[in-house]
Amino acid sequence: GAVVSQHPSWVICKSGTSVKIECRSLDFQATTMFWYRQFPKQSLMLMATSNEGSKATYEQGVEKDKFLINHASLTLSTLTVTSAHPEDSSFYICSANSGTFLAKNIQYFGAGTRLSVL
Amino acid sequence: AQSVSQHNHHVILSEAASLELGCNYSYGGTVNLFWYVQYPGQHLQLLLKYFSGDPLVKGIKGFEAEFIKSKFSFNLRKPSVQWSDTAEYFCATGSNTGKLIFGQGTTLQVKP
Fold first, then answer.
1. Per residue in A19-37, pLDDT tens?
2. How many Å apart are CA B78 and CA A62, to the nearest integer?
């Protein structure tokens, strides 16, 4: 089956530093990747949609300068949390799908990255 | 805007009990509906999906869901749960852009 690898699984950083999270599709080409944020005991909230070779589309309320997304290849998307602050501490999850008909395609999820900002 | 609502936030069952988790969606057009499961420490996995056709959908691990258009519902069921079914369950609806809109999630705890 399709596998999405997310790295790192857990990161602790100091306030003010930047953190990069990688999301890779290991055995398929992901034309579209999605980035979610999950707070404890809450649902996944879509942050942005990332299409290979183009700028990411951010959901309302998500700061694009804060959460930089790059989808440079069909197998890799990165999320960089710039100048992280404690309120950015959360669980970040990526997913990927492929094919022409996005509505019918299934998203494959990474295992998530827990970010703790001190 | 599309939305999904899950009524049960925390469900506790004994092994062999039957399970039904509620999910209601709001959207008047074509619906793509999904149930995902997140086992402790693991990534989300697809249990089942509905796009069209037979409203009773069979998924993995003995789960099924029934799409009832008149009730805007897509409830998840399993006749007999096991301890290994302890997990977080998410109902979701998909849009034509490929986005998934998730419900709040239901924590299922199965006691051995």
1. 999 999 998 888 889 999 9
2. 37
Mean pLDDT, rounded, for B98-104: 88
Provide the token pair at B17. Answer: 């009990």
Q: Is the dihedral of CA A101, B97, A88, B38 positive or negative?
A: negative
Residue B33 pLDDT: 93
**Interface check B22 vs A, CB under 8 A:** no
Q: Name which of A68, A63, A71 is nearest A29 in CA terms.
A: A71
pLDDT band with cut points at 50, 70 and 90 for residue A104:
low
Number of DSSP helices (H) and strands (E) in chain A, helices first: 0, 11
Q: How far apart, in Å, do the first and last CA atoms of chain A sit?
A: 37
Chain-chain contact of B99 with A34 (C-beta, under 8 angstroms) = yes
Beta-strand runs (E) in B15-99: 19-21, 24-26, 32-38, 44-50, 56-58, 64-68, 73-78, 87-94
Cβ neighbors of B99 (< 8 A, separation 6 or more) are A34, A46, A49
What tokens were used for A72?
A: 């440079």
CB contact under 8 A, A44 and B102: yes
pLDDT digits over A29-71, tens only? 888 899 999 987 778 999 999 988 888 999 999 999 999 999 8
